[in-house]
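Hey, quick one: can you model this chain's 3D structure?
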Amino acid sequence: MKIAVLGAGMVGRAIAEDLSTSFEVTSFDKNSGSLALLAQRAPSVKTEQANLSELASYNALLKPFELVVTAVPGFMGFGVLKQVIAAGKNVVDISFSPENTLQLDALAKENSVTAIVDCGVAPGMSNLVLGRYNEEMKVDNFECYVGGLPKIRKKPFEYKAPFSPVDVIEEYTRPARLVENGQMVTKAALTEIELMDFEGVGTLEAFNTDGLRSIIDTMKHIPNMKEKTLRYPGHCELIIALQRSGFFDKKRIAGKGIDISPLEYTSAILFKEWKLQPGEEEFTVMKIIVQGEQEGKRKTVEYALLDHYDVQSQTTSMARSTGYTCTAAVHLIAKKLFAATGVFPPEKVGSNKACFNHIIQYLKERKVNWEKREYA
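Sure thing. Here's the predicted structure for all 376 residues.
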């Protein structure tokens, strides 16, 4: 099977490398440096420089391929996904665009396309777990806590971005949607900060972000749902100070002959401050909590992950935990274990026990180990 991977960033490279052990893979990206690094790491992957924002070219670009993975920046994600579906290609998406990708369901059905979207770690694994236990329990509470953090803490931010700072800032500024007592409520991001202890990590701060995405629509029967982002304590206060001071404003300003938006300027600075250096160790910490009733008894299910940078393969934890969830879904489609047409968020895939178990086992084989606990 020939597979196209659109995007050769940190996660896109990990996806292409992993898929190249089973398929014929071609990676597309505008950045020649990213493609060169991928070619060095995985010589069997074909690389092709392309401007992926030129949406009119997709029919011709994708013609040789049977399946596509979209790993482009979030602001491009919806448009790219739409073109891939219109080209009649099965697709797994991790671009995490701010738009509602379920809007493309009719287009996917019209083109007989299987599209699995938001298929990373969060969103992704959190949805898969909820979808699985929603089949077995009457769920009344869902919580997800997740963060990617550097092993070595460096002031002032004590943070390194596993993806574009623009996407991180978008996460910090987009209003957070939660479900409380059966009603969707909207709260500012970076609010309701709480300290939480995680085994093997220590104390982290958790705060509201807009991470529920599709489950707000697909799991309307669950009265309480929230997702919070994790950082080292104190990070949130710094981000709030930048936000309130106007550093994230998009409106362009002029000064000394330069016309630029504060957001663009801030992103350029933070790119240097937050950029993960080659070989720099980081980790992903995550906890998923599903609570409800099963056979008339209270039940809580927890899935926990603490995954570290892989020194041997020099692959970041965020690339592993996100990318391998995506490639597991690619195998589901390739092996026709999941073949329904339409747009499917991971909770719809996870409702199928065989599909859920396949993904958990696939991750385990790559040493991304989810620890499960059940208690009353």
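One thing worth noting: The chain is about 35% helix and 30% strand.
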